[in-house]
């Protein structure tokens, strides 16, 4: 479904980002995978070799830094002689604690990576598409079900992910005239290193609340990304797609 397209995936070195890279490669895309974790992204790069012979390349980036994002875009253009027309923002972090105990740095860090990072990448990719007069693109931002309903211990994370929803809808309105679509996915609880940090008893309670009675797999999110990246979703923009097994619908 994505044959010949160049797709940029951030947070590519782990969990959901990793599964997205693999799904995109299976669908014939060239995958530019970027992460702050150099080792992680190189391991994912290796894993793609058994999936497809496409031109997949690893990059290091800190999405919260505009200079780093600018360097990433230059590096991608140098290596591919092309601009990505698909981009997924999967880079994200948690710094959980109760609001009354939350240090200012924990707030800033989460907002900078999850929300500012989303802005920086959407801007950079949209700018590149417009400047090169390409026919359009698809950007997918990873929000969270927590951005919709909130969560104890996650005021910083919940605010950042609610921000991603507002950002996505606003950006979608602005760049629709360039045929760039911007959508958000709201995962529920997905089995990745991020959720491994959640205490076991809380995960058990959460699982009981999920109508489909099980946690999600990274591939469940990756398949939704394939759809939103492809022309099968050509008339969908500014949407929020919940991939949560029905949790908090
Ligand atoms: P993960 O922790 O497995 O992977 C996140 C990746 O982002 C890591 O490889 C990390 O190195 C990278 N990263 C962190 N800071 C970065 C930065 N400044 N620049 C570039 N890369 C950076 O997490 P997971 O579970 O794969 O999450 C992916 C996305 O999905 C995140 O945005 C997360 O908030 C969101 N999400 C995850 C859920 C889950 O249940 N796992 C639920 C809802 C949303």
From TrEMBL:
GO terms for biological process: estrogen metabolic process; fatty acid biosynthetic process. The keyword Transferase does not apply. It catalyses: a (3R)-3-hydroxyacyl-CoA + NAD(+) = a 3-oxoacyl-CoA + NADH + H(+); 17beta-hydroxy-5alpha-androstan-3-one + NAD(+) = 5alpha-androstan-3,17-dione + NADH + H(+); testosterone + NAD(+) = androst-4-ene-3,17-dione + NADH + H(+); 17beta-estradiol + NAD(+) = estrone + NADH + H(+). Pathway: Steroid biosynthesis; estrogen biosynthesis; Lipid metabolism; fatty acid biosynthesis. Pfam families: adh_short_C2 (PF13561). It is an enzyme of class 1 (oxidoreductase). Its EC number is 1.1.1.239, 1.1.1.n12. One of its GO terms (cellular component) is mitochondrial matrix. It is found in: Mitochondrion matrix. Keywords: Fatty acid biosynthesis, Fatty acid metabolism, Lipid biosynthesis, Lipid metabolism, Mitochondrion, NAD, Oxidoreductase, Phosphoprotein. GO terms for molecular function: estradiol 17-beta-dehydrogenase [NAD(P)+] activity; quinone binding; testosterone dehydrogenase (NAD+) activity. InterPro entries: NAD(P)-bd_dom_sf (IPR036291), Sc_DH/Rdtase_CS (IPR020904), SDR_fam (IPR002347). Heterotetramer with CBR4; contains two molecules of HSD17B8 and CBR4. Belongs to the short-chain dehydrogenases/reductases (SDR) family. This is (3R)-3-hydroxyacyl-CoA dehydrogenase. It comes from Mytilus galloprovincialis.
